[in-house]
From TrEMBL, chain A:
InterPro entries: ABC2_TM (IPR013525), ABC2_TM_bact-type (IPR047817), ABC_2_transport (IPR000412), Nod_factor_ABC_transporter (IPR051784). This is Transport permease protein. Residues 36-263 form the ABC transmembrane type-2 domain. GO terms for cellular component: ATP-binding cassette (ABC) transporter complex. It comes from the Bacteria. Keywords: Antibiotic resistance, Cell membrane, Membrane, Transmembrane, Transmembrane helix, Transport. The keyword Transmembrane applies. It is a multi-pass membrane protein. Belongs to the ABC-2 integral membrane protein family. The chain crosses the membrane at residues 33-60, 66-86, 122-143, 149-171, 183-202, 238-260.
TrEMBL record, chain B:
Residues 7-237 form the ABC transporter domain. Signal peptide: none annotated. It is found in: Cell membrane. Its main location: membrane. InterPro entries: AAA+_ATPase, ABC_transporter-like_ATP-bd, ABC_transporter-like_CS, ABC_transporter_ATP-binding, P-loop_NTPase. Keywords: Antibiotic resistance, ATP-binding, Cell membrane, Membrane, Nucleotide-binding, Translocase, Transport. PROSITE patterns: ABC_TRANSPORTER_1, ABC_TRANSPORTER_2. This is ABC transporter ATP-binding protein. It is a peripheral membrane protein.
TrEMBL record, chain C:
It is found in: Cell membrane; Membrane. It is a multi-pass membrane protein. Belongs to the ABC-2 integral membrane protein family. This is Transport permease protein.
């Protein structure tokens, strides 16, 4: 009970890192709410693949030397990661500041803003990897994987997750009104998904808008995933793609931690 | 530890832009004490609490919590604090018990220890039967008790309670006070803010009265009443009330030590209420109601600031 | 639209309240009008990405004895989807919120207004919103040469009918919703319709079982109707599609009004 002398020290001596404690909180919530996202995380990517990859693919001979299905599998894979990462960094982050105030609750404990941000990122990586693993198993049966390098896609997706999510978390922690999210989805998420090389090569885009695809972290994720599942080298040198994603991730994390500090200060 | 106060502040200031929320206050809170900040909304109580809770940086002045600097050692200090905020921030999608175990993990407690603490504390705040249920359906009083249990999960040296019973019905308040009194008996240091004088009188060994970001008086509830008020107060209401306040104040002059005309009634500060009431009748005044009561901190506050605590 | 919901995966209990506020806040939020006006944006992006982008890979398509560019095939489907989602977003998300949380209708019903009249009013607003999107979309189709101005004028009333049918059905579904968690099911269902209603490839390509199943679902009829009109094909089979949509509108409206009566007038 409160105040017994023997356990007074035990509470202070840490047996779990605060970042992990934050991850655990998200996992506890997920255990209660997983069913709400099971369709969108696991079923929709496969439906998408069937409709476009198989349905439309029947009319597309081959793209860049491979069948259309094999060509868009890595694209749908990366865009699934992208959508989960982006979607789970919006309402829930703002809500935890504004309505649930759980970050304020954490702030009263030894948990630091950096723990809050990193714990959330770890949770997102878990969410993305679960969806990626399920998707890979399904497409394996469809013969959508051409190379054992496909085993590297979960790593690419983890990097893409942080590169996408961290800047969005920084944004969500800085705004006060959730109607911006509708705009974020409409003007960032959907255009990226549709024009960043998921469904057709970006070389087909008019020269004016093509740089927009190159700016999107998703295109770099798609290129890396595609290189892996097809067992060939990506469009640009490997280090450039990786470096670009790392840069987004690093800048996003710095901004996110700063935004958390600012929001929780006064 | 004995010579070091748990909380030590000198000239503590908090400004938000041009607005000064806390305008230079001194504090000493000793171990085992129940210490209160009494004052109306906007007096600077919550800002002070947030600085003590190491979530808000002082603009100026000196502040030491548990002998440490809240700016440099914030995380270390927070590890030894329990905080019950004014706005509930329980996780509505976790169960009652998970709210405690999750929070315990933020303090680094092992899983087994977290579960043990959660069960003990649920027992203590009389929510053991709701352990597996959701937070959402709990009443306001239950949620507040759960928040207090959560604040206790790390076995803190100091528990900070910001307006612990605001918004609760009388029965829930009394139940909560009773639990807090138990904590006090166990030697837990309580620091609380309130704008209810009955709460301050019930719980606090010592308190400071704040107004406009400054401390206007401090001491035990009894000592404050003795210094700033009389033992009893006679409250008179007049039904003809044309100019009830000021007009009667003149007619009541000399009945007590002091007369305070309020819009709806007149307060007469006296040593003996019954004697004073006879004097009122003797002067030929016929109040529609007359009430003799003991002085409270409300009277202290009224005397110090010329305003009532709750409007 | 669909992808937006998929990404903005909202976890029920906790975010239920949050979402509730979203919808309410959306109306007053800084970006509300931008969100509202840009509603036609998503089908348009799909048209550009899949219709034009993937269309380059597909080349021409032979359907019903006619050969057409893939974009010409996809565009009417996106038009039908635009009519559907414009009406549904108003009669599911917003309508449910008003029904359940804002108690708007209870206040209205304290006046002489009858439930069927409320249902009508809501439906008209939804159809106006949906029709705004389809009108803009038709203009774009004409500009891109995907249909003629004359046939666009003929197709427009058909999109209004589609809006009525889906709007009414959306309202009927809303009255049966238990909570926000059911929206995952609804949006997944909506997304499945979007993918498999002869939208991206002709239904005759589907496996027989799926083909029969699709022919029972509403978006299929909507797509077939506007595709024929946009292509300038008028045949008696269109009456069947019209009849389906009319029945859907009337039944949905009747059902919604009855449920509202039972829910609100106790």
């Amino acid at each position: 009970m409160p105040g017994t002398a023997d356990n007074r020290g035990a509470a202070v001596r840490g047996t779990v890192h605060p970042t992990v404690a934050v991850l655990e909180r998200h996992l506890s919530l997920y255990r209660r709410l997983w069913h709400a996202s099971v369709l969108s995380s696991f079923v929709l990517p496969v439906l998408f693949l069937l409709s476009i990859g198989v349905g439309v693919g029947a009319y597309v001979g081959s793209v860049q030397g491979v069948g259309y299905l094999s060509w868009i599998v890595p694209g749908v894979l990366a865009s699934t990661a992208f959508q989960i990462a982006l979607g789970e960094s919006t309402y829930s982050v703002l809500g935890d500041f504004k309505w649930v105030r759980s970050y304020h609750g954490m702030r009263a404990t030894p948990v630091r803003p950096v723990d809050m941000v990193l714990g959330h990122q770890l949770y997102l990586i878990f969410r993305v990897e679960a969806a990626v693993a399920a998707f890979l198993v399904v497409v394996l049966f469809f013969g959508g994987l051409q190379s054992p390098w496909a085993l590297a896609t979960p790593l690419v997706c983890a990097l893409l997750t942080v590169a996408t999510s961290a800047p969005v978390v920084a944004f969500s922690a800085s705004i006060d009104h959730d109607s911006y999210f509708a705009l974020l989805f409409r003007f960032v998420l959907i255009p990226s998904t549709l024009f960043a090389g998921v469904f057709f090569p970006v070389e087909q885009l008019p020269g004016l808008v093509r740089p927009l695809a190159y700016v999107s972290p998703l295109w770099h994720g798609v290129e890396l995933c595609r290189a892996a599942t097809l067992g060939r080298s990506p469009a640009w040198p490997l280090v450039v793609h990786l470096g670009y994603l790392v840069a987004w991730a690093a800048a996003g994390l710095v901004l996110a931690v700063r935004a958390f500090h600012r929001r929780l200060e006064d | 530890m004995a010579e070091h106060p748990l909380i030590f502040a000198r000239g503590l200031v908090k400004r938000f832009g041009d607005f000064t929320a806390v305008g230079g206050i001194d504090l000493d809170v000793a171990p085992g004490e129940a210490f209160g900040f009494l004052g109306p909304n906007g007096a600077g109580k919550s800002s002070t609490m947030r600085m003590i809770g190491c979530v808000s940086t002082p603009t100026a002045g000196e502040l030491r919590i548990l002998g440490m600097d809240p700016v440099r050692d914030g995380a270390q200090i927070r590890a030894r604090l329990g905080v019950c905020p004014q706005l509930d921030n329980l996780d509505p999608d976790l169960t009652v018990r998970e709210n405690l175990t999750t929070y315990a993990r933020y303090f680094g407690l092992s899983r087994a220890e977290s579960r043990r603490r959660a069960d003990e504390l649920l027992e203590f705040v009389q929510l053991a039967d709701r352990a597996g249920g959701k937070v959402e359906p709990l009443s306001g009083g239950m949620k507040r008790r759960l928040t207090i249990a959560r604040a206790m999960v790390n076995d803190p040296d100091i528990v900070l309670l910001d307006e612990p019973t605001t918004g609760l019905d009388p029965q829930a308040r009394h139940l909560l006070w009773e639990r807090l009194f138990r904590l006090k008996q166990r030697g837990v240091t309580l620091v609380l803010t309130t704008h209810y004088m009955d709460e301050a009188e019930q719980l606090c060994d010592r308190l400071v009265v704040m107004d406009g970001g400054r401390i206007v008086a401090q001491g035990s509830p009894r000592a404050l009443i003795e210094s700033y008020s009389t033992p009893e107060v006679l409250e008179l209401r007049f039904s003809d009330g044309l100019d009830s306040g000021a007009g009667y104040a003149a007619k009541l002059d000399g009945v007590g030590e002091r007369v305070d005309p309020l819009p709806d009634r007149v307060l007469v500060y006296v040593n003996n209420g019954d004697v004073a009431l006879s004097e009122v009748h003797r002067r030929g005044l016929t109040p529609s109601s007359a009430l003799v009561r003991r002085s409270t901190l409300e009277d202290v506050f009224l005397h110090l600031t010329g305003r009532t605590l709750v409007d | 639209m669909m992808t937006t919901f998929v990404a903005a995966r909202v976890s029920p209990g906790r975010v239920g309240a949050v979402v509730g506020r979203n919808v309410g806040a959306l109306r007053s939020g800084p970006a509300y009008w931008l969100v509202l006006l840009s509603g036609f944006f998503e089908p348009l992006l799909y048209l550009l990405s899949i219709g034009l982008g993937v269309g380059v890979l597909v080349g021409n398509l032979a359907v019903g004895g006619r050969t057409m560019a893939y974009a010409t095939f996809v565009a009417p489907a996106m038009l039908a989807v635009s009519a559907m989602s414009g009406a549904l977003s108003e009669t599911t998300f917003n309508f449910f919120f008003k029904l359940k949380y804002m108690k708007t209708f209870e206040a209205v019903l304290a006046t002489p207004v009858r439930p069927i009249e409320i249902a009508f009013g809501e439906l008209i607003w939804a159809v106006v919103r949906g029709s705004l999107y389809t009108a803009i979309f038709l203009v774009i189709m004409v500009v891109l040469g995907l249909t003629s101005a004359g046939w666009a004028l003929v197709a427009f009333p058909a999109t209004v009918l589609i809006g009525l049918a889906f709007g009414a059905a959306g309202m009927a579904i809303s009255t049966m919703m238990r909570g926000w968690q059911d929206f995952d099911l609804l949006t997944t269902g909506q997304f499945a319709l979007f993918l498999f209603s002869g939208t991206f490839s002709p239904v005759r390509d589907y496996p027989v079982g799926l083909e029969l199943l699709v022919q029972v679902t509403p978006l299929y009829h909507a797509v077939e109707l506007v595709r024929a009109l946009c292509l300038g094909v008028v045949e008696s089979a269109l009456l069947g599609h019209v009849a389906y949509l009319v029945v859907m509108a009337v039944a949905g409206l009747w059902f919604a009004a009855r449920r509202m009566e039972r829910k609100l007038c106790v």
